[in-house]
Amino acid sequence: MKLNILVLPGDGIGPEVTREAVRVLEHVAAKWNHALHMEEGLLGGIAIHKTGGPFPDRTRELALATDATLLGAVGLPEFDHLPPEKRPEKGLLGIRKALDVFANLRPIVAYEALLASSPLKDEIVRGTDMLIVRELTAGLYFGTPRGISGESGERVAVNSMVYRESEIKRVARMAFELARKRRKKLTSADKANVLENSQLWREVVTQAGKDYPDVEVDHILVDNCAMQLVLNPTRFDVVVTENLFGDILSDEGAVLAGSIGMLQSASIGDQQPNGVWRGLYEPVHGSAPDIAGQNKANPFAAIGSAAAMLNYSFGLKEEGAAIDAAIQTVLKHGPVTADIKRQGTAGTTEEVGKAVCAAIG
Ligand code: IPM
Ligand code: MN
Fold first, then answer.
1. Active site residue 247
2. Fewer beta carbons below 10 Å: N end or C end of the chain?
């Protein structure tokens, strides 16, 4: 099979973790005889430096022309003082929107080998296996009006949480489909006791559920969801929620997985007319500039995202599963990076990537 992939290493630890994901993809392509065609592009702070903007036209063209995009991370402290419009993160939002990848799949699995890395008690975390489906192209991140205006000396800031029925419906259906392939339980998290936005969300999810009688649905308020996530995580199978709620809940979920360095993500939309399932694959973690360039960032999230790419965009289930199995082997026997290392010397980013390749065989 021909695999066309755009690689956007981005900022901070992005390049080093992406390098290991690419190493694993090359290894898999060689082993299973796939023709890997990779291009590299600019996104985020590095794109601002080289082109003046966080999401250059060239990157947009490449992303729209390719089947799948592998992304590292974006964000640099030097841009922290700038308004959202001018920041590296704007590039990330831009590419998500341009690709129309409205469903961001963030699996949270508590591997046995990492139970001790979570500050939560083993008996709470053990068995956690959930999938957060975060709506990714609407809500507060994109709604208008937005901005800061000055009114008689006092400034006012406005952001708008906007959801159209169709935007809720498509991500809800995606979540139902995914739940159907898992334990058939869907939890929708909203704030329907306060927000009209969430009232519509709840209605549309309920309505969508009529087509999925085999999936059990429950609605939970997002504040309670945040609490249940650490009190009783095994109660969750698939969780569907709007953009900002999903952003927050998934970082909280990282505590269950032992480290945010473990969380992969796949952003997908509808199938293209040519049959391709275009996707954007990125770790949930950020650019971690404090440890960038030191060869100590955890590459598992990036490598796991590459596995998700093979799975979702290319339908290569066997290859994706082989990477996932290799990750588990390396988690058990090492080397692993400092964020999840309990005792002894931590491995480097590169050593972990090479160990995953070796474990694939
Ligand atoms: C994430 C990140 C991004 C988001 C930032 C970097 C814009 O936190 O992917 O979770 O908020 O979506
Ligand atoms: Mn986030």
1. yes
2. C
* One domain for residues 124 and 237: yes
214 catalytically annotated: no
Q: In terms of pTM, does the model score above 0.85?
A: yes
For residue 126, give the CATH number of its domain: 3.40.718.10
The string of pLDDT tens digits covering residues 332-353 is: 999 999 999 988 899 999 999 9
Task: Residue 112: name the closest of 122, 121, 103, 104 by CA.
Answer: 122
| Catalytic status, residue 324 | no
Residues 156 and 80 reside in one and the same domain: no
Mark whether 294 and 244 lie in a shared domain: no
Nearest Cα neighbor of 298 from 114, 174, 126 is 114
Q: Find the Cα–Cα–Cα–Cα dihedral 204, 208, 214, 216, rounded to 10°.
A: -10
Which amino acid appears at position 18 of this protein? T
- Residue 41 tokens, joined: 């592009």
CA–centroid distance, residue 72 to ligand 2 (Å): 13
Q: Among all ligands shown, which has an atom nearest to the Cα of 281?
A: 1
CA of 74, closest atom in ligand 1: 6
User: Is it the case that residue 19 has pLDDT exceeding 90?
Assistant: yes
Answer yes or no: is the C-beta of 283 below 6 A from any ligand 1 atom: no
Residues 179 and 225 in one domain: yes
**Which residue reads 């965009």 in tokens?**
313
> How many whole angstroms separate alpha carbon 179 and alpha carbon 182?
5
Q: Which domain holds residue 232?
A: 119-131+138-255
Q: Where does a domain end: 210, 240, 255?
A: 255
Q: 């709470």: which residue's tokens?
A: 124
C-alpha pair distances (Å), 150 with each of 110, 113, 154, 156, 158: 48, 53, 6, 6, 11
Judgement on whether residues 5 and 87 belong to the same structural domain of the protein: yes
